[in-house]
Write a structure and sequence with these properties.
Elements: H1 5-14, E1 45-49, H2 55-73, E2 77-81, H3 85-93, E3 99-101, H4 104-113, E4 118-125, E5 132-140, E6 155-158, H5 164-176, H6 181-184, E7 187-190, H7 194-202, E8 208-213, H8 227-233, E9 242-247, E10 251-252, E11 255-259, H9 264-280, H10 282-289, E12 295-298, H11 305-321
Parallel strand pairs: 1-2, 1-3, 6-7, 6-8
Antiparallel strand pairs: 3-11, 4-11, 4-12, 5-8, 5-9, 5-10
Length: 322
Amino acid sequence: MTLPRRSLLAAFLLAPLAARAQAPAQRHPMPEKGRRAWAAQVPQIRIGILGGENEADRIGRYGAYGRLIEETFDVPVRLFQASDYSGVVQAFAGKHIEMASMSPAAYAAAWAESNGNVEPFLVTQEADGSTSYVAVMFTRADSGITSLEQMRGRTIAWADPNSASGYLIPRAALRTQGINPDSFFGRSGFAGGHEQAIVAVLGRQYDAAVTWASGIGDPAQGYTRGMLRATADKGLLNMGDIRLIWQSGPIQNGPLVVRKDTPAEFKADMTAFHLALPSAAPEIHRAVERGTTIGWVPTKHEDYALFVQMRQEEAQQRRRRN
């Protein structure tokens, strides 16, 4: 029996984390160094980097990664840094980049904007075998807000309109709980990224915000990874200064995405490179993934079909409001 779309969405949002676990990632050899025939069609590998943190941190995390790709395939790499998620989405649509690591919702947007000319090929995997994370809503610890219900009439910052954890998933989950996010909150706005949303709450511009976390480990430490943990590790956040008041069900980790019209050999080499990266260059892998992920496992468009659905439904909601 096929579930209705709304029931399918509810089942996805409420699915247990263990159901999304896979076998542990395997060790793979790094591809042999040397220029490939596909370089005639891809003379430069342009890699999109999503917004959500400051530019210096993104350069620091991705610089060695780009250089290793250059050294492996003898093709120049250019890092395309966007100020927000839509910059990478539009870069895919305009064929200005070949590859990017994306959020699930940003992938759905890129798939729609490029008329299906993108495809996911790998997804990050946690140490426990899961390929999921969660969205969390947080307030300042001194706000007096201790529950979601107390957010009625208060202000909330969404991270980015193309973010799964920072916008689409929380709104879809709240609607599934019978809460209309457009009327429940007194005021909402986009902070311009996950780190910016955290700063906005700490600076009392909003009462609460949503961001992403692994959902694994100690919440008081910002979990094992995620934007709370990353911001705390940089000294910009003391976890004692915030309170978590809501958490979503598991969200499929964001995929590595490649333009569909690139050569099959290019896609195969990018897959082989990333599968080998965790064991061949663990420091670079940790810098790019910021946490406890052990590697990547294969994925496909069907794993993100619900994010396409949620994006379409959110667009319908916007049209109704206007």
